[in-house]
């Protein structure tokens, strides 16, 4: 924060913007100071939170800083502004051909009269704007890389749920004939091998993103330092080509996130066994709604860029829960999710179903969520925190099984008789109702 205030108070502040509270700052300095700040960041002066980064340029302040640079130049001693050693006049023009400073008489000489000459301050300002455009591009790539890095780190932190998945599958096999031991062993070995391979991919992806972030930050700071140079020094550096090439080069080949997906294999006899407990579910409290808070936060986590304004997207949403609560026994039902874009299915208790907000922090729900972001879907269970399941999204019927006494809720892909995920060793203390929420494009 100290660095940002120092730069913003300089007469060389080159990109003044006004944030929501009305205070103005140098945009590159503000970006760097907010890089490690908690979200949402706060104004360095009044500490008011700022919820968006698309700030408007402060035209008045930008003009004043430009005029201040010109006025400062007029007060520099003759040696500082560079006198022409031939005509003993101040160099005021920049020759586009030889890329050097000239006085008036030199610009009219036979050697230079056919060349294009411009005022030094205007050429410097044009160059400075080109540097700023590069900075905007580099900063955009930096933030994109950081978002991807955060997601890759999150995936690595939750990758231990593979152990949980092995427990889920083992629990299913324990329920059937012991002759399937060989199939179970082969299934678990395949998951273990896939898990190690995908985790290595995630590690390599994270390392690549860390390195790319370092390179992007370095180029961004070089561009910012170049922008802060006085006009004459800026034009005499003659490093434009090298710096611009490096800036554009570092933005190429951005490392892309790994989209992990574990394979799912059929479990012999799974659907036949569950179908013995098939029940008819009568839905109650059916209603059409705009949205429920279940998806808040998930969409912003999934979208690679800023999530769209969901109010502008037309969706048909359906929400309902079963009229019959379950207090004991084993129960199985199926839902067709083929035409749904986002959906939530499972069981919940009456206290959660009766809430207006239906947040996942309240407890009392055992749900499987399918949320679409960009061009892919991710499955979550309503654990605390939400637990992603990196398995293929079911495209037909999803089966939901409740074993009240054993404290188990399982979700299965009916089409290929495979397990999606399970809640294991739960402690049910109240009646559970089937729950369904779906969105249709």
Per-chain topology:
Elements: H1 2-8, E1 16-18, E2 24-26, H2 27-34, E3 56-57, H3 59-74, H4 78-81, E4 93-95, E5 100-102, H5 104-107, E6 117-119, H6 120-158, H7 161-173, H8 181-227, H9 231-236, H10 240-250, H11 270-275, E7 283-288, H12 298-302, E8 316-322, E9 330-336, E10 342-349, H13 350-353, E11 365-373, E12 376-381, E13 387-389, E14 397-403, E15 408-413, E16 418-423, E17 432-440
Antiparallel strand pairs: 1-2, 1-3, 4-5, 4-6, 7-8, 8-17, 9-14, 10-11, 10-17, 11-12, 12-13, 14-15, 15-16
Pfam family, one: SPRY
InterPro entries: B30.2/SPRY (IPR001870), B30.2/SPRY_sf (IPR043136), Butyrophylin_SPRY (IPR003879), ConA-like_dom_sf (IPR013320), SPRY_dom (IPR003877), TRIM/RBCC (IPR050143), Znf_B-box (IPR000315), Znf_RING (IPR001841)
Keywords: Metal-binding, Zinc, Zinc-finger
Strand coverage percent = 15-25%
Largest sheet: 7 strands, antiparallel
CATH structural fold name of the largest domain: Jelly Rolls
Q: Can you identify the CATH superfamily of the largest domain?
A: SPRY domain
CATH class of the largest domain: Mainly Beta
Helix content: 25-40%
Number of helices: 13
Envelope shape: elongated
Q: How many structurally independent domains?
A: 3
Cα gyration radius (Å):
31 Å
Give the total of beta strands. Answer: 17
> H/E series, N to C?
HEEHEHHEEHEHHHHHHEHEEEHEEEEEEE
Looking across the biggest beta sheet, what order are the strands in? 7-8-17-10-11-12-13
**Low-confidence residue ranges:** 1-12, 304-313
- Oligomer state of the chains in this structure: single chain
Q: Which structural category fits the helices and strands? A: alpha+beta
InterPro entries: B30.2/SPRY, B30.2/SPRY_sf, Butyrophylin_SPRY, ConA-like_dom_sf, SPRY_dom, TRIM/RBCC, Znf_B-box, Znf_RING
Keywords: Metal-binding, Zinc, Zinc-finger
Pfam families: SPRY
Domain B box-type: 79-120
């Amino acid at each position: 924060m100290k660095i940002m205030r120092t730069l913003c108070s300089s007469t060389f502040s080159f990109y003044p913007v006004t944030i929501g509270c009305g205070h103005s700052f140098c945009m590159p300095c503000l970006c760097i100071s907010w890089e490690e700040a908690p979200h949402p960041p706060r104004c360095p002066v009044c500490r008011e939170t700022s919820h968006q980064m698309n700030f408007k340029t402060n035209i008045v302040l930008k003009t004043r800083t430009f005029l201040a640079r010109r006025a400062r130049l007029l007060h520099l001693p003759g040696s500082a502004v560079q006198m022409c050693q031939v005509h003993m006049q101040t160099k005021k023009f920049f020759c586009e051909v030889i890329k050097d400073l000239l006085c008036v008489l030199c610009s009219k000489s036979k050697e230079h009269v056919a060349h294009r000459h411009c005022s030094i301050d205007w050429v410097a300002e044009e160059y400075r704007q080109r540097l700023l455009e590069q900075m905007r591009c580099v900063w955009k790539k930096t933030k994109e890389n950081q978002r991807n890095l955060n997601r890759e780190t999150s995936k690595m932190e939750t990758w231990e749920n593979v152990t949980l998945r092995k427990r889920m599958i083992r629990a299913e096999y324990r329920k059937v004939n012991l002759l399937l031991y060989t199939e179970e062993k082969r299934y678990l070995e395949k998951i273990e091998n896939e898990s190690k391979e995908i985790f290595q991919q995630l590690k390599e992806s994270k390392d690549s993103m860390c390195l790319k972030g370092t390179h992007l930050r370095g180029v961004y700071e070089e561009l910012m330092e170049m922008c802060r140079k006085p006009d004459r020094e800026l034009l005499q550096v003659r490093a434009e080509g090298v710096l611009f090439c490096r800036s554009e080069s570092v933005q190429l080949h951005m490392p892309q996130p790994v989209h992990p997906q574990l394979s799912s294999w059929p479990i012999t006899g799974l659907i036949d066994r569950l179908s013995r407990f098939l029940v008819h579910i009568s839905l109650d409290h059916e209603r059409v709604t705009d949205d429920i808070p279940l998806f808040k936060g998930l969409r912003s986590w999934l979208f690679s860029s800023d999530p769209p304004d969901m109010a502008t997207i037309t969706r048909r949403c359906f929400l309902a829960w079963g009229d019959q609560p379950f207090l004991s026994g084993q129960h199985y039902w199926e839902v067709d999710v083929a035409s749904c874009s986002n959906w939530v299915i499972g069981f919940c208790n009456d206290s959660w179903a009766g809430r207006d907000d239906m947040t996942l922090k309240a407890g009392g729900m055992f749900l499987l969520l399918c949320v679409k972001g960009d061009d892919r879907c991710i499955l979550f269970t309503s654990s605390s925190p939400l637990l992603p399941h990196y398995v293929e999204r079911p495209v037909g019927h999803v089966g939901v099984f409740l074993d009240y006494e054993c404290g188990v809720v399982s979700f299965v892909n009916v089409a290929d008789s495979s397990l999606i995920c399970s809640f294991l060793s739960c402690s049910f203390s109240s009646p559970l109702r089937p729950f369904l929420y779906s969105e249709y494009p």
